[in-house]
Design brief:
With 392 residues, the protein is an alpha/beta fold. The chain has 13 helices and nine strands. It has helices at 2-13, 19-22, 31-67, 79-90, 101-108, 138-145, 187-201, 222-230, 275-283, 286-294, 301-314, 345-352, 379-390, and strands at residues 124-130, 152-157, 206-212, 217-218, 272-274, 324-325, 357-359, 362-364, 370-371. It has a four-stranded mixed β-sheet with strand order 2-1-3-5. Strands 4-9-6 form a three-stranded mixed β-sheet. Strands 7-8 form a two-stranded antiparallel sheet. Helix 5 (101-108) crosses helix 7 (187-201), helix 7 crosses helix 9 and helix 10 (286-294) packs antiparallel against helix 11. The longest helix is centred in the N-terminal third of the chain and has 37 residues, at 31-67. It is globular and about 100 Å long. It starts with a helix and ends with a helix. Residues 1-25 and 59-75 have low confidence and may be disordered.
Length: 392
């Protein structure tokens, strides 16, 4: 009985179990938070992989043609082969590309910041022909270029769809660049010039850039012209202040503040440039947009855009004269066009003896390296006098 009583006493004294009375630790509910973190990490990981794949696929179309050839390790490709690939890249892509003007101008405006050149090279002159179609004086130019293949590059801008008919052995064969329609006095003429410059700039060996037309002829031998341009300290751009109606009279005050009227210049379309100025021209948007919008006939962009811009930005670096001779003595909006009866040895000598012109701080008896405008029927007479008078 005592044991029963003792058991009953214990039972009577017992109380129901509870969390408060037993002081049990709280139930932890961390698994939803951990799961959320894992899910977020997984989503970010998958998103990063997808983004990287899309980005690499997009960029490969730009980088693959030029950089893939340089990606091999030294153990896989001989050193001389890798240097050849680098040289190929520095000479630029084929001129038969499908780049838009925007892509082309952007690519051509890239310029190394480091001095010097990683490979041995011969500086070249880029001869850029802005034409209306055929090159009737091509045989004269063939004779001029003969034997000097390492020292020049040729680029031809003709109307879209026009195919230049020359023999496969011609220096002009395969030298047409992708083109668009150009119109005299219009911004499209400057577009053609910049298109030629941009294509020529893709070859890093090109150091000087001369703009020519199908009516131009050389006045001296290749050796003399090459030396004259390669060692020139200035670019040959004609620029002068014309206070009359055909000069300042074409100025539009809406060009302010980029161009003031006292900065307005006029000059010949037919320029010669060094590489520094050529890069600046293809990269320019500020002046180009002003002239495109506010220089329209009777303001002729090709007579004012480059002379004005280069005078403002590089006044001390241009010679303020052209090296392409023309005859304005007959009057009219265009210079004289010469025919076969005009071509004599005396005629060429008169151009040679024009006078003395400044060159690298000195005066020399060579002012003009080229001349225009010569009709197709002058080819025969020009070939007859070329060896004696022109030296080709």
């Amino acid at each position: 009985m005592q044991a029963r009583a003792a058991g009953q006493s214990v039972a009577d004294e017992a109380v129901p179990l509870s969390r408060e009375s037993t002081k049990l630790p709280p139930i932890k509910r961390e698994w939803p938070v951990k799961l959320a973190k894992v899910l977020v990490f997984f989503i970010l990981l998958v998103g990063g992989v997808l983004f990287g794949s899309v980005f690499n696929l997009h960029m490969s179309q730009y980088l693959k043609p030029s950089w893939s050839s340089l990606s091999s390790s030294p153990g896989e490709v001989p050193q001389e082969h890798r240097r050849l690939k680098l040289f190929d890249w520095l000479t630029g892509p084929s001129i038969h590309h499908n780049m838009t003007d925007k892509e082309l101008l952007w690519l051509a405006s890239l310029e190394p910041r480091r001095r010097g050149f990683p490979l041995k090279r011969v500086p070249k002159i880029a001869f850029m022909f802005l034409t209306k179609g055929p090159l009737p004086l091509a045989p004269l130019w063939e004779r001029f270029f003969n034997g000097h293949q390492k020292f020049y590059s040729i680029y031809v801008h003709s109307p879209p769809g026009y195919k230049l008919e020359v023999s496969p052995s011609s220096v002009f064969h395969g030298r047409q660049i992708p083109s668009q329609t150009t119109q005299w006095g219009d911004i499209t003429m400057c577009d053609g010039e910049r298109r030629l410059l941009a294509n020529a700039l893709l070859d890093f060996a090109n150091e000087r850039f001369i703009l020519l037309s199908e009516t131009c002829i050389p006045l001296h031998s290749f050796q003399l012209i090459y030396s004259h341009l390669i060692f020139a300290q200035h670019s040959f751009v004609g620029a002068f202040d014309d206070p009359g109606p055909y000069g300042r009279g074409r100025y539009n005050a809406q060009m302010l503040p980029v161009v003031r009227i006292d900065q307005w210049r006029k000059g010949s379309q037919w320029f010669e440039l060094n590489r520094k100025l050529a890069v600046y021209i293809v990269a320019d948007e500020l002046y180009y947009n002003k002239f495109r919008d506010f220089c329209k006939p009777a303001c002729y962009v090709d007579e004012h855009y480059l002379p004005t811009m280069l005078s403002i930005e590089f006044g001390a670096e241009i010679a303020n004269r052209s090296i392409t001779w023309v005859d304005w003595s007959r009057g009219g909006p265009h210079p004289a066009m010469f025919g076969k009866d005009d071509i004599t040895a005396e005629f060429i000598k008169n151009i040679h003896g024009y006078g003395n012109c400044s060159y690298n701080g000195h005066y020399i008896p060579v002012c003009f390296l080229f001349a225009r405008k010569f009709s197709p029927n002058t080819l025969g007479p020009l070939l007859k006098v070329s060896s004696e008078i022109i030296g080709i």
